[in-house]
Amino acid sequence: MRVRNKPWADTLIADNEKAIVLEPAQYRGHWQDRFASQQPLHVEVGTGKGQFLIGMAKAHPELNFVGIELQKSVLAAALKTSLPEELTNLQWVLADGQGIENFFEPREVAKLYLNFSDPWPKTRHEKRRLTSKTFLASYSAVLGNGGNIQFKTDNRHLFEYSIMSMAAFGLDLRELSLDLHTDVAASEGQLENIETEYEQKFAAKGQPIYRLVARIPEK
């Protein structure tokens, strides 16, 4: 997808260095220094315009959040939206999520979020899927035993692939939903779901949303 350039993005990023990180590797093992309080760290890979992570940071002040996004203009939009909220438990990272083990030490991250990732449907592009074994190895490296991965998508084929990929990798599948919004409504407030921009778009068209939570097994 082609992203329209935003002329103001560079200035906004340069003026808000306390909220955004351009060289994440330098904080490996020291991410808590970026936050007002030392709290469990949750990371979203491919944060888009930030609606999900901003919502999570507002709903969970007891947690710290990092959103990683490769597209500068997209992340600048997330930064712009978040600034008026003055969230001291939220940081943005302008970087490629591939090689995340270079950004965080083992066990530094408690939970990872993958929301509406590119499905890369062609077989020859399997290694680009964010739930392929190469990416899972990177996630496992920063999560450590007991860490969780939460994955949401509107793509049934990617969801099925992710279930098989995670099971083959040895992850424990803890939650599976084939119609998340119906399950949330039926839970009467017991099942939390902060929606993304894409999620709202697809759900409005009647498209079911799929979600799973996988856990790194204790060894």
TrEMBL record:
Transmembrane segments: none annotated. It catalyses: guanosine(46) in tRNA + S-adenosyl-L-methionine = N(7)-methylguanosine(46) in tRNA + S-adenosyl-L-homocysteine. Its EC number is 2.1.1.33. InterPro entries: SAM-dependent_MTases_sf, tRNA_(Gua-N-7)_MeTrfase_Trmb, tRNA_methyltr_TrmB_bact. S-adenosyl-L-methionine binds at residues 44, 69, 96, 118. Keywords: Methyltransferase, S-adenosyl-L-methionine, Transferase, tRNA processing. Belongs to the class I-like SAM-binding methyltransferase superfamily. TrmB family. Catalyzes the formation of N(7)-methylguanine at position 46 (m7G46) in tRNA. This is tRNA (guanine-N(7)-)-methyltransferase. It comes from Furfurilactobacillus siliginis. The gene is trmB.
